[in-house]
Specification:
Strands 1-3-2 form a three-stranded antiparallel β-sheet. It has a domain of 94 residues. With 141 residues, it is mainly alpha-helical.
Length: 141
């Protein structure tokens, strides 16, 4: 029985997933060339063309080679690219977490502050109190 390295096993699992999803052209390309076209790469990682172009402009795209006029994404460089993307995501999450303001300290002995809104009391306490009209007895003349 053949033993696979972890990278080979991950690549085979990814290929099997693509077979289940019906992306046979991606598998043919990956098995014959060891590289993916941009369209195949975008299908494999479920990213859009604009996002892929943005990653390339920022220098964060996957490793590529030129084959004539075509640029191809190297399959052998994808695990390192994935790790770099995961590390970048974790760093961005930590940065966002550091920027969040700390909640104010709550003194357990102080009553909670009221929220702005209606005055304290019954739900109709904000209405003006009208004076009651008292009927006067008719004068006797």
């Amino acid at each position: 029985m053949n033993e696979f390295t972890e990278g080979q096993r991950d690549e085979l699992l990814a290929l099997l997933k693509l077979i289940q999803d019906g992306h046979l052209n991606v598998i043919r390309s990956a098995l014959t060339l060891g590289a993916l076209s941009f369209r195949e790469f975008q299908a494999r990682y479920n990213i859009s063309k604009p996002l892929h172009a943005k990653l390339d402009r920022q220098g964060m795209g996957p490793p590529t080679i030129r084959a004539g006029a075509r640029r191809l994404v190297l399959i052998s460089g994808l695990p390192e690219w994935e790790k770099a993307m995961l590390a970048l995501d974790a760093a961005e999450r930590e940065h966002r977490k550091a920027l969040e303001p700390e909640p104010p300290a709550v003194d357990p002995l102080q009553p909670p502050k009221r929220k702005p809104g209606r005055p304290k009391g019954s739900k109709d306490s904000y209405r003006r109190v009208r004076p009651q009209i008292v009927a006067r007895p008719a004068s006797q003349e």
